Amino acid sequence: MIIVMSHGATEKQIENVIDKVHSYGLRTHPIFGVQKTVIGIVGDDKTIVVENMRGMPGIEQIIPILQPFKFAGREAHPDDTVIEIGGVRIGGEKVVVMAGPCAVESREQLLDIAGKVRASGASVLRGGAYKPRTSPYSFQGLGEEALKYLAEARDTTGLLIITEVTDPRNVELVSGYADIMQVGARNMQNFVLLTEVGKSGHPVMLKRGPSSTMTDLLLAAEYMIIEGNSDIILCERGITTFETYTRNTLDLSAVPAIKHESHLPVLVDPSHATGKSSLVEPMSLAAIAAGSDGVIVEVHPNPEQALCDGPQSLTLEQFDVMMTKLRAIAPIVGRSL
Ligand code: PEP
Ligand code: MN
Q: Does residue 102 line the site of ligand 1, with CB under 6 A?
């Protein structure tokens, strides 16, 4: 349920309504829009005596929310969310490209990639410090050492940095370095992690689990929003199907579908979706054509030597070519790069 305050509602009237909701033992989630303030009610709001509240000064309307994802959905929040971090706007007119190695392997490797992807037009550097690997014997990431290299790469290039947090106990540490934290596909329904990331209030990219529906993804986002974090980017990175040619099946229809249901920005990760570097460029172009707010791709100077996900990594040259094509396609769908 949401309470829509009238255009001229005063701060005092808003405060009174919030206090009243709290008196029923429920939490509130105010959304301050340009025109109006909307107060979302968190909890089992059936107990609210709607009739009692309806007469309160400043209230325009009390509306039940039918979407299961109360705050990630467009019913409560019709306008697109644009997340602004250090001058980069995610979800706005410009599409955003995040690029970098699957895992940070060394300081030299990262600084080299950072300078080059920046020159090609990326605005965010990706690089895993804590790697969720299928096998416990695979490279697990350099941990805090990698976070330090990422921070140095940000300082030298001006790129934002995104890196994955896999453990609720590391949220404070990772948010101290990263501009955007990533919750990976395997952790999409790690509700303890989602709650901690939500409490941190730090911008986050939430990747769709390989066996999760779009509704599951939006409900996972909801876990963070109700803790006070609305700076959430959603990411489609392929789902499990019977097809074996690709690593996963890129569900491109999820992009317009999620954007129809939700106000949150949506990115596509064609690297993990396909597992094949040859498919990364065409799927990136398709993602932008389908209305994605950007792409996140894996890039490595020498994919054959990569410690992680080499077969799906673009070389720096391939990345540069792809960027030229993305720049050409973006205006066709009313965007720029
Ligand atoms: C990653 O981006 O490094 C990653 C592990 O992706 P996913 O969680 O989508 O598998
Ligand atoms: Mn990877």
A: yes
